[in-house]
Amino acid sequence: MLVGRRPQKTWKPPAAGTPPQLCLYNSFARKKELFVPLNPKQVKWYICGPTVYDSSHIGHARAYLSFDILRRVLQDYFGYDIQYIMNITDIDDKIIKRARQLYLLENYTSGKFGELSMTKVIKDTLSALDKFKNKCIDETDPDKKNMLADMCASVNVAVKKLECSLLQSEQQETEKSKNELLHAAKDVLSDWLDSLYKHTVNDLAVFDRLAKKYENEFLCDMASLNVLPPTILTRVSEYIPEIIAYVEKIIDNGYGYVTKDGSLS
């Protein structure tokens, strides 16, 4: 005898829950409001990258890790397609000055400014130190003033050590003391050399090399911290004509003016 199938209850899919909604503080309205992107599922996000004139520090780590967390929340929890655009400032007064100083210091230590005798190193360092001390005196920030004072003290110690080595006529120890002095006085000497020879540095490759070096360092640091790379990476050097046109428009509209030193305010 055949037995019919048992009746089954009607299956109903679970009711769709309300998708998570993102609210942001609107400083114009002074309240939290629903975030509504122009494209329903895509967010275009611009983030300012570093000015690449030196190695990254803990402040960079904090900033980019914080934004990376926010990016991952928007992407992985709220489900947005994030177009994350970062700009690298690879043309800047700080980059130009730092590149020029390092270039001149390298030329100095390699003997391109003349034979680097022990007495010359001491004489040049003391001349550079006199100029640097004025910078220390003029500094008003107490923390920076203490830092500059410590630098001066370290250089003085290194000078005295080299002078003692010369008096004792110990060739090996003298060469070691000379290298220690050049290392201790690198900031003092590079600043002094820049004041004397900055007009001689015109090769753009000098500045480009420094910017690329620290850009690569920064990107490696971010990868080590597991920070997601930007979707698009741009550089100031790639948009110079557009920047000039933009600044000219600001001036034409009366929102900016050129100062005596050529800067825009």
From TrEMBL:
Q: Identify the residues that the record assigns to the tRNA synthetases class I catalytic domain, covering every copy.
A: 35-263
Which top-level group of life is the source organism from? Eukaryota
GO molecular function list: ATP binding; cysteine-tRNA ligase activity
Gene3D superfamilies the UniProt entry points to? HUPs
By its UniProt entry, which InterPro entries does this protein fall under? Answer: Cys-tRNA/MSH_ligase (IPR024909), Rossmann-like_a/b/a_fold (IPR014729), tRNA-synt_1_cat_dom (IPR032678)
Q: Which UniProt keywords apply?
A: ATP-binding, Ligase, Nucleotide-binding
A Gene Ontology annotation in the biological process aspect, one of them, is:
cysteinyl-tRNA aminoacylation
Q: Which Pfam families match?
A: tRNA-synt_1e (PF01406)
GO cellular component terms, semicolon-separated: cytoplasm
| PANTHER family given in the database record | CYSTEINE--TRNA LIGASE, CYTOPLASMIC, CYSTEINYL-TRNA SYNTHETASE
Protein's name according to its UniProt entry? tRNA-synt_1e domain-containing protein
Q: Which organism is it from?
A: Brugia pahangi (Filarial nematode worm)
